Amino acid sequence: MKQILTIVQMIVSVILIGLILVQARGTGLGRTFGGGGGTSFARRGLEKIIFKLTFVTVAVFLVISVLSLLF
Length: 71
Known about the structure:
Blueprint: H1 2-25, H2 29-32, H3 46-70
């Protein structure tokens, strides 16, 4: 059980790193320094899905981490 949780945790962590890198790559200099007018914080389409998926992946990672401590 412990080995399965460790393998799943490693897979989820790689997915999480990928999701974070995709989000960081999508921000340009104009967006960083507020060059987009008032819509610089609006998330739309695929960016919004990736943003929500990142939170879900973090929650899964935390649950797996707690489970691996218990077992």
